[in-house]
Write a structure and sequence with these properties.
148 residues; alpha+beta; Endonuclease, Chain A; four-stranded mixed β-sheet; globular; binds zinc ion
């Protein structure tokens, strides 16, 4: 937690914050399992380019971020906002969103293709739809055939 963080944060917030800095979160693992099943292997984790994409194929300059909805402020599922310290959180969230945007812009300027998949798009009910859209695009960019 950064300087000046309020002491009283509820469990949900604390959990999300811990999840933020950690690699190998559940959505990341689910994503990687799907990539392997589709034959899109050879990726590197947390590659050292702006934003440290969760999954990257550096040789092909293809990057994939798996974003937690709360922390990165998902545009799809309207994540909750903590009820107290509203000002603190809104500043923090704005910074996160801005940082994400800047990282993606830097990567794209450097010739990367960037994909962002949100945690809520990897839930059981919707993951098949999400991957049905994502995998063919990735396969094309990577020059790999998709496994069945
Ligand atoms: Zn979401």
């Amino acid at each position: 937690m950064g300087e000046g963080a309020p002491k009283a944060v509820n469990d949900h917030v604390r959990k999300s914050m811990q999840g933020n800095k950690r690699a190998n979160t559940k959505p990341e693992l689910v994503m990687r399992e799907r990539l392997r099943a589709a034959g899109l292997t050879g990726y590197r984790l947390q590659w050292k380019v702006p934003g440290r994409p969760d999954v990257a194929w550096p040789g092909k300059k293809v990057a994939l971020f798996v974003n937690g909805c709360f922390w990165h402020r998902c545009p799809h599922c309207n994540p909750s906002v903590p009820k107290s310290h509203v000002e603190y959180w809104s500043v923090k969230f704005e910074r996160n969103v801005e940082r994400d945007r800047a990282n993606i812009a830097k990567l794209e300027e450097d010739g990367w293709s960037v994909h962002v998949v949100w945690e809520c798009q990897l839930k059981k009910k919707v993951i098949d739809d999400t991957m049905a859209e994502l995998l063919p695009v990735l396969a094309r960019q990577l020059g790999k055939p998709l496994a069945d």
